[in-house]
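2024-03-11 09:14:02 INFO receiving multi-entity request
2024-03-11 09:14:02 INFO entity count = three
2024-03-11 09:14:03 INFO echoing inputs for audit
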Amino acid sequence: MDKVIKLTKIFLKNSFSNIDSRMGISTKSKSKIIIYGLLFLYFAGLIIFLGYNLLDGLIAIHQETIFVGMILFMIFGLTIVQTIFSSINVLYFTKDSEYLLPLPLKPYQIILARTNVMLIAEYLIIFLVGLIPLVMYGILTKAGIIYYFTMIFAVILIPILPVLLISIIVMIIMSFAKLTKNRNKFQLIATLLVLAIIMGLAISTSGMKQDLTNEEMAQMIVQANGMIELVKGYIPTVDYLIEALTTKSLLTTIIEVLKTIGITIVGFILYMIIAQKIYFKGLVGNLFGGGTSHSNKEINQKEYRNSKLYKSYIGKEFKNLVRNPVFLVQCLLPAILIPILMVVVVYAGFNSDKMRLEQITQMLQQMPTNTFMIVCVILGVIQFFTMFIYISITAISRDGENAVFIKYIPVSLYKQYIYKIIPNIIMNIITVIITLGIAGYILHLPVITLIALFIIATIMGVFQSLVMIIVDLKRPKLNWDSEYAVVKQNLNLVFPVLLSMINIAIIVGTVFLLKDINVYLGTGILGILYIVLTAITNKYLYNKQYELANKII
Amino acid sequence: MIEIKNVSKSYVKGKKSVDDLNLEIKNGEIFGFLGPNGAGKTTTIRMITGILNIDEGDILIDGKSIKKEPLEAKKNFGFVPDSPDMFLKLKGIEYLMFMADVYDVPQNKRKEKIEELTKKFEIYNQLNNQIQSYSHGMRQKIVICGALLSEPKNWILDEPMTGLDPKSSYDLKEMMREHAKSGKTVFFSTHILEVAEKLCDRVGIINKGKLVFVGTFDEMKQKFKENASLEDLFLEITEK
Amino acid sequence: MISVEHITKKFVRNRKQKEKEEFYADNDITFEANDGEIIGILGPNGAGKTTLLRMIAGILEPTTGKISFDGMNYKDNEIKIKQNIAYLSGNTKIYDTLSTYELLKMCCDIYGVNKENSEKRIKEITKVLGMEQFLYNKIANLSTGQTQKVNLARCLVHNPKYYILDEATTGLDIISSQIILNFIKEERDKGKTILYSTHYMEEAENICNRVIMINKGKIIKTGTPDEIKRDTNTTNLRDAFFTLIGGVSAYE
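2024-03-11 09:21:47 INFO inference complete, emitting structure
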């Protein structure tokens, strides 16, 4: 057991500390703490705000126990989603496996330590989104000390089963992966499949996601409650813990908690038995297997064709994004998936009540939609969507230690920066087109307004891409051991969110200032503002192209 | 021709990693740059190739200053970095075509040049596979091919023999010889003295940022007179 | 003593078309390494050196054949064998957010070296390899030579009996590689068994008692460096190798 704890510590230390520079310049830990602190406060505030409103409403109609169920399910679901992304990387794509295998460690010790890493990463998030609302519930319902004890048990116990479950699924998939023809393609397909399942789940459950402040709440509550009742039969631990947290009898609490612990232990034993059988086979196959495809095909004469540098360079960037499952999922796909997912969720939400949808569409169409206000709302929504496109913010970091390449080839750095952000701009445009298509359909906006919106949103996309590559140049993360570190354990990813918040603030500000302005005039003013901002940023990037590359060594 | 004029560089204030370095690598010459790890070899190569800024002094490549006309200067050399782990997701052929586009290799020359280089290094059959699937030696080879595609006048290679098997390193050395014979320049760093002895017209030894010796290999032996082994010679020079 | 009997490793490589291609990374390899011996394993890239050493280190399972360490095999005594092995490959930076000392401490814990002994052992290794200067620095900030020393040190904390070293000096300068080579020689004189793969033929000539030359997964020659040179009528192992594979015949 001692060895397991040691290993866990090492894995954690290795995956969470980030090295900003190989030159030994220590990171400014103060600024890091401040950023993390602010982020924590921001999210905590958000959660408290949302949670309080919801809980307050529920208490008013004496349905507060539903809140506990909702939170526990959220923890469960969140763990599943997070683990899907982290488990493949933690279990299979860390570089240290070759070093661990010759050590006198029993397989279970390595498996346990790896599992611990995933669990601990889960706990960090769950303490934030799960514990805060549960404490709030305790305070508002004036719960006793037993509630808080049970709550801690619940938060610790719930994530375990989903982590084990997803890990086992990943292990099974990966032990087949080495048999497939092309490992890369298989990974890609597996990742897409998992995403599709999540999307499907989100869509099918989106019927519950309705505005909770409306007067039909009671009926909705019954629905939500029914949903929880329906699902919890399949997830016994959550079921028991809901009971344990909401009952007034101490004995019931103890029994339910013990039942949960029992099931978790059984699950754990099963997990260890299966994992010991299949994990190492898949791992070794992945590390050194002859599983990569080899083609001895003659080279197509077409391949020798000249192409313009910009085409070649941007093509290279796209290939790197698409052929890397991690980059594909984190950088490219959100541009397409997020707007669609959002719309589907909202649409399905309305659709659960057919009458309402028609009424709303009618109402919307009767409203004067072609106003500056609506334009700004759409722009804000687009901003919200595009902040998940991480292409530009990781443009330099993605190249890792090979990033110096840009400095010794005879192509101007500024040009290369622009080539590197073009994929971001293109994905941004795709998001904009999807969003505008949907908005145009629902709101019946005139074509000219849509075109104006498209132009502004694209300019904002260019602006965002420029700012983000400057951020990445100033704080590159070049020394990483798996692609995952670039898109997840990278503090820089806060910046797209920050910029989008600022942009939204600017948009809201203009709406307040220019309330009843003509739609075209207002759009024009916003457009000019962003053209100026973009031009300034571009000028900065051009003038400082060499200084900005100083961190790339 | 590569001219290094009074070049200094310090990462930390007051501690020079490269100190007032002067070197001229003439046309038709293979120049070996020797020194222990951490002596300033890599720093020097990074400055020549424009990866690092030069604090003091200047470096000219065929008369073009890497400081003032970086793009022109960069066109004049092909560089092979010490780690070949690059563009792993590209296929071999895609990488080579990308490099050809970067260095403006004319259409009619590409096929011929790629086939010549990759067949010589025995990686032609692998060109349709992702570089990721290559072994270390093969990655090294494809990077070298990429750097030599544009037939640059100056070759700059950082530890090119590391990880190459005897056959490939033999081929590479032959290519370096041919290149120098045709009046062009080869500048490479190494820590294998035998390689330097058999291959280089001149060698330079750097230690603690300072050039401690420049000349032919025989001159080096004479200067330090010992009949001792190469290792001892090297130790003696660098420990002074 | 490490004995390797008729080891074969078969990989199935898939081609684009449906045909399956089987290829042998190692094919029918047999040899013995005695106590107090350095066995050099030589061959070009892709010859099967690394696969062979990985099988001996217990990372990969051979398709057929037997590997035993003083009579123990992986099936029955896996942990016991691994307790006595030092396996080193390449010079990748690993766990580079730790300091050298922390890494060594962790290795001591994993190998079950007790507290007093581990402090003593770390001190010893630090001295032998000359790592005093950077013992408390983050590994990420070390140079290539220093990193490789750390990598070697990492494998030594448990005072192993068998050394399996894969390209241990690749990328190192003369001084750093000499320290490592000297250390290996000393260990040999203490009666340890050492397998040493390299493609620097000169290096192998200097330190190995016996040499095994591998090409395309098969042993093409074994013997002491002198024997090999005599048999092939050459003056150094590099030429001997070329003669044996019938490739580039002479060096100059």
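2024-03-11 09:21:48 INFO post-check: Confidence is low (pLDDT under 50) at residues 18-28, 206-215 of chain A.
2024-03-11 09:21:48 INFO post-check: Chain A touches chain B at residues 23, 184, 292-297, 299, 301, 303-309, 311-313, 315-316, 319-320, 323-324, 401-402, 404-405, 407-412, 546, 550, 552-553 (CB under 8 Å).
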